[in-house]
Write the structure tokens for this entry.
Amino acid sequence: MGTSALEFEKPLVEVEKQIEELRSMAAEREINVDAEIAPLETKLGELRASIYKNLTPIQRVQVARSPRRPFTLDYIRLAFTDWIELHGDRAYRDDPAIVGGWARIDGETIMVIGQQRGRDTKENLHRNFGMPHPEGYRKALRLMKLAEKFHVPVVTCIDTPGAWAGLGAEERGQSEAIARNLLEMSQLTVPIIATVIGEGGSGGALALGVADRVLMLQNAVYSVITVEGCAAILWKDGKSPEMREKAASALKITAQDLLELRIIDEIIPEPPGGAHANQEVTAAAVGEALLRNLDELRRLKPDKLVRRRREKYLRMGQFEE
Amino acid sequence: MAWFRKEKKPRQPKGPRLEIPADVWEKCEACGHTDIRENFNKTHNVCPVCDYHRRIRAIDYINILLDDGSIEETESDLKSVDPLGFPDYPGRLKKALTNAGDSDAIITASGTMEKMPVNLGVMDFAFMGGSMGSVVGEKIARLGQRSLEKKFPLIIISASGGARMQEGVLSLMQMAKTSAVLSQLAERRIPYVSILTNPTTGGVSASYAMLGDAILAEPGAVIGFAGPRVIKQTLGQDLPEGFQTAEFLLDHGMVDSVVHRGQLKQTVGQLLRHMSGKPAATGWASS
Ligand SMILES: [Zn+2]
């Protein structure tokens, strides 16, 4: 974990360091330290579990954004088979901030689409930090329509701070691209399952998020605005930890909050220490949830599927009359 | 991603000052031209000197578009609640209700337009920056439902900084909700005209505002996904002249036409007649 550890993970780093030191000493002196390491590893496991059990909303934001977390392509590698990536929107260019293509789950073909972040600076420049341009959303729509044509379900992974705010994005109609996806996804005649795997940042996330089932990893967040943006606008302070924490709590962005608000349908548990602590276990849990939901949705006739999806969204909102 | 603006003070504060006589002087915000209010009202608050389209209230647009005596407000009993227990939200709502009226950030109405029955929604920037929360989404959904039932065309005039952050993801979901309604209208071939006024940004521009069978914009209106300030920040330099204006969007193929406020009613009427198989209006057939 080392230098990229989050502030609240520091106690874990301490124990990990002790274990590491014991190991290197043992190797140097050619002695067996298993008896000394075992209790430390137990302690590490317990510490990790207890820290992760009680994460605050702002800590979950940090976890959701962590570069160590599994990204869309990691889930594609770990949970699916027979992946072949498809590129481009056929109008302007290929946007590397969104990946998509055919894959299989349990032998059956699905269309997988998701925002893709980068692990390091170079990768992030290429992927634009997972912030898509309009052509990314248009590629996503092209692939969804392709899946519909061949009666194949669509599986999306949501992992973005938001849609890109820049000159080219505005010139090429960022708003229209997002709006078009919302409309088309509400009438696509094949099952759609969206999974929030990291940060679900506002309209740029929702443009892949109109679905029959919306799943969310335990430590993922989903918000109408970034906590920084919210704090900056409402309290003129988007930088201080206190205001960011206040915004993170107020906005109700955790999986548990959103399940209670009936925005999402299911929480996918993460291993102790978060998705990054064990990518394989996390991907297996995601695969299991997808398969189970797909089995249910595949039984519905297209018109019923669309009707139910629309009804679900038409019910959303709270008001008084 | 800053889709939100702080609510602005309404142009006409309530209280004793409402009693000001009609011949009070007003000043164009763009060129400084000064005239009596009555003259500004005659031109729907378009400056007679520089053509600047001044901000007007939702009710003013309803009066511009719908035929006299045909107007009936719908869904007027929907009220915003505070579903998240968001800090200061009840206070802000109360302030908006006092200053901007009790229709929330959109007034919806049924009526006729050049004798055609239509359903019209007009956003009100004076109410919390025209921000879209659950009530705005529900009003549009119900208005759309009315259009579906009667096959009446739908018109929405937008003026909004985006989703209302005090209702969190519930506000975000109104983008999906309104788009779902519009997909039903599209399926039944019921025309929908979207009119963009200053400003139309964020979650509103990224949902129903950009989904019209025809999209019209008022001259000079700022329209975009991200607000100009946010883009300036990511860009680290000043924005090009005219960036994100209605005219810029027209150049980039994002709207069908930039329409002067004085031409709005007849333009929408012409479009709706084309899209609903009705004959041309008298006086337009030969022109
Ligand atoms: Zn003027």
Chain B has one domain: 56-275. Chain B touches chain A through 67 residues (CB under 8 Å). The CA atoms of residues 9 and 252 of chain B lie 33 Å apart. Confidence is low (pLDDT under 50) at residues 1-10 of chain B.
